[in-house]
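Subgroup meeting minutes
Present: P.N., E.W., G.H.
Scribe: E.W.

1. P.N. recapped why we're keeping a running log of single-chain structure predictions: easier to compare across weeks, and new members can see raw inputs and outputs side by side.
2. G.H. added today's entry (189 aa).
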Amino acid sequence: MSRRLLLKKKFSKQDLKFSEQDLKFNLTKYFLNNHFLATLFINRILKAGKKNLAKKLFLDTLDIIKKRGYTEKKSILLIEKAVRNASPKVALKVIIVEDNIQKIPITVSKLRSTTIAISWIINCSKKQTDRGQASKLASELIDTSKRVGETIKKKIHLYKMVEASKAFTESQFESMKNNKLGRYRFILW
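Output recorded in log:
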């Protein structure tokens, strides 16, 4: 058993570069530097430590969303709505019980559900056949905010798997829990 103290999750501090005057004129730069979702997206897009490239790709995504008929404020709200629509409430945890692998549904915290949703959105956008990563990400965000697209299909598939495993695992897990001979090994995500 670990003797480490349980620490709270640390988040990146906001950049306070922009004043209120900049906020009036350039809402996207303010969103990019001061919003929690933007930092999560940028860190998930990030490859080989090139954060400026990831920021540029995310800014291009916001510009493409604006070109498709959304205002600056609505494009930011669209991203929040897309993440909210894609975030799952439950997930499957793999447990090995007496050399049998079982998937048990567990509830997920808000932070974990948003990171799952962001990774789903980015992975599903990479599979599209549009031209350029920014346009792929923009179209996936718009589709997810409208509750259509590959990300929502992935979420529905997860819920179907949870429903299928729920009835089986409740009876099996309770009987194994009461049995002192059963051994449990948990596999982390």
